[in-house]
Amino acid sequence: MVMSVTVGGSTTGNQGFPSTMSANGALTSQSFRFAEFPVGISASGSQGASISISNNVGRQMFHLDRIEFLPVTSTFEEEYDLERAQEAVNALFTSTNQLGLKTDVTDYHIDQVSNLVECLSDEFCLDEKRELSEKVKHAKRLSDERNLLQDRNFRSINGQLGRGWRGSTDITIQGGDDVFKENYVTLPGTFDECYPTYLYQKIDESKLKSYTRYELRGYIEDSQDLEIYLIRYNAKHEIVNVPGTGSLWPLSIENSIGPCGEPNRCAPHLEWNPNLDCSCRDGEKCAHHSHHFSLDIDVGCTDLNEDLGVWVIFKIKTQDGHARLGNLEFLEEKPLLGEALARVKRAEKKWRDKREKLEWETNIVYKEAKESVDALFVNSQYDRLQADTNIAMIHAADKRVHRIREAYLPELSVIPGVNAGIFEELEGRIFTAYSLYDARNVIKNGDFNNGLLCWNLKGHVDVEEQNNHRSVLVVPEWEAEVSQEVRVCPGRGYILRVTAYKEGYGEGCVTIHEIEDNTDELKFSNCVEEEVYPNNTVTCNDYTATQEEYGGAYTSRNHGYGKSYESNSSVQADYASVYEEKADTDGRRDNHCESNRGYGDYTPLPAGYVTKELEYFPETDKVWVEIGETEGTFIVDSVELLLMEE
């Protein structure tokens, strides 16, 4: 039950009442208790006061005997404030000698008790106020000592490499307000779920005890679509929506400001902390739609060499999402016994079995990926590409590298996973291959990924995206032409390589020439003739079968790379409580955003595309590459002009 008193249109008191009898007990005179609280009324003017009483839905019966509204002296009010502050301070500790904090005393609650002490009258109880202030400071130090998080007061984000809080650049740290006494963080929404707003920290293995339950808790001023993760063997995940100031559950009834602009924490305020149900097991804690959130995780056997630790993650991946939170704590709760102990041992064993399976799979995938990457280069120095390495081979090798699982945590892809080292090793070589290829290919934007940038146009042409992430040039009319002027080295040899597809009658042509003469061209038609490869006679009747055999490419080193384009399907696993049993416990915790990085989703050329090439030796420092057709439609996947190795 809650009683509110409104004076002059402003609510000056709000008081909850604890239970005084059991739900099915007999009502006697002993069941009643007195409850009192002060109501401030201005000394000037005439004011009216109204009293309202409400009982939340689902609560037990409330019996009211009488209400008294009595004038009190200032001494009575100050004595009441002092008594209330003394009770609040003493309730922080496990004993009268203040050696330890109670487990359920939160860091946020200590700050609020500190505010209560600071609001005591210096004129009435200065000595008592100083004594209580020292006790509260001692409680705050004890709270800091048991908190395993680094940088508890949000002094910086990304300030110390490998330590403290890491987060996205759009997070802001703000000073205390009428809700928080200390610093708090604000997480805004994002326009792309693959680039979420995030804040995380790892609890090192050295700080954890074996077979112990730990608790993450804190205070949320308001939030929308705030995701909270605790990750060790699996991910414990909650989405928390907390209405804030100005909602149906206000944190404060007025925004009182002090004379210097500071928040007036001595102003009367309301606090809403409903006892909501949630989906946790008995004895476990979970976050719910309350300003005070709590989430726990069980730790099995600790291993300093493995350093699994616990990841604490806050994430927002929606445009309307936001959160303001502070007073975060990660602390030891209790040793595991009975069912909880058996459950964490089982979870640990399943995790180790999956880790062994992952290691076995990774060895195979890594070997295949490394062979594909190594085949791009001349030697193990990775400073020169093979002469016939083309862009499709680099894409194919990159595709195989992206088959390495657990390179990053699927819950937040900026956090390295168990296979981050080998993934980044191979991905670095892929990046080198792209750089060397770009340096060797003098055609700019030859894969049309940047539309028609760097190309000159005559007539109507289009760049279309086909088969997800492939851009192709479409020349639909015989009078259209696309060309590019290229600087070259006279006397050096070049390879003009084109991958294209011809629809309908006529021919598609890619011509290379200088100002005068020295012209050569590659022709593409719907009927493949035997002129390209003397020992590979192909007719129109068996053209389709040949394409399937060679994966849509005629260069010898492309053969065998078709398999690397195959899709890598995986089973999505729903986020659940840490030890929840599910039918797909061996399913991957994949992150679909991770496939958008690099060329993870680069698809193969469909049947019908042909790769042709010719050797060209320019006599001047400038050549022109022109693309056109005689009839039908000409579709070009890529154009390369590669400098031959000396």
TrEMBL record:
<feature type="domain" description="Pesticidal crystal protein">
    <location>
        <begin position="3"/>
        <end position="73"/>
    </location>
</feature>
<dbReference type="Pfam" id="PF21463">
    <property type="entry name" value="Cry1Ac_dom-VII"/>
</dbReference>
<feature type="domain" description="Cry1Ac-like">
    <location>
        <begin position="447"/>
        <end position="525"/>
    </location>
</feature>
<comment type="similarity">
    <text>Belongs to the delta endotoxin family.</text>
</comment>
<dbReference type="Pfam" id="PF17997">
    <property type="entry name" value="Cry1Ac_D5"/>
</dbReference>
<dbReference type="Pfam" id="PF03944">
    <property type="entry name" value="Endotoxin_C"/>
</dbReference>
<dbReference type="InterPro" id="IPR048645">
    <property type="entry name" value="Cry1Ac-like_dom-VII"/>
</dbReference>
<keyword id="KW-0749">Sporulation</keyword>
<dbReference type="Pfam" id="PF18449">
    <property type="entry name" value="Endotoxin_C2"/>
</dbReference>
<feature type="domain" description="Pesticidal crystal protein Cry">
    <location>
        <begin position="149"/>
        <end position="333"/>
    </location>
</feature>
<dbReference type="GO" id="GO:0030435">
    <property type="term" value="P:sporulation resulting in formation of a cellular spore"/>
</dbReference>
<dbReference type="InterPro" id="IPR008979">
    <property type="entry name" value="Galactose-bd-like_sf"/>
</dbReference>
<feature type="domain" description="Pesticidal crystal protein Cry1Aa">
    <location>
        <begin position="82"/>
        <end position="144"/>
    </location>
</feature>
<dbReference type="InterPro" id="IPR054544">
    <property type="entry name" value="Pest_crys_Cry1Aa_dom-IV"/>
</dbReference>
<dbReference type="GO" id="GO:0090729">
    <property type="term" value="F:toxin activity"/>
</dbReference>
<protein>
    <submittedName>
        <fullName>Cry1C</fullName>
    </submittedName>
</protein>
<dbReference type="InterPro" id="IPR041587">
    <property type="entry name" value="Cry_V"/>
</dbReference>
<keyword id="KW-0843">Virulence</keyword>
<keyword id="KW-0800">Toxin</keyword>
<dbReference type="InterPro" id="IPR005638">
    <property type="entry name" value="Pest_crys_dom-III"/>
</dbReference>
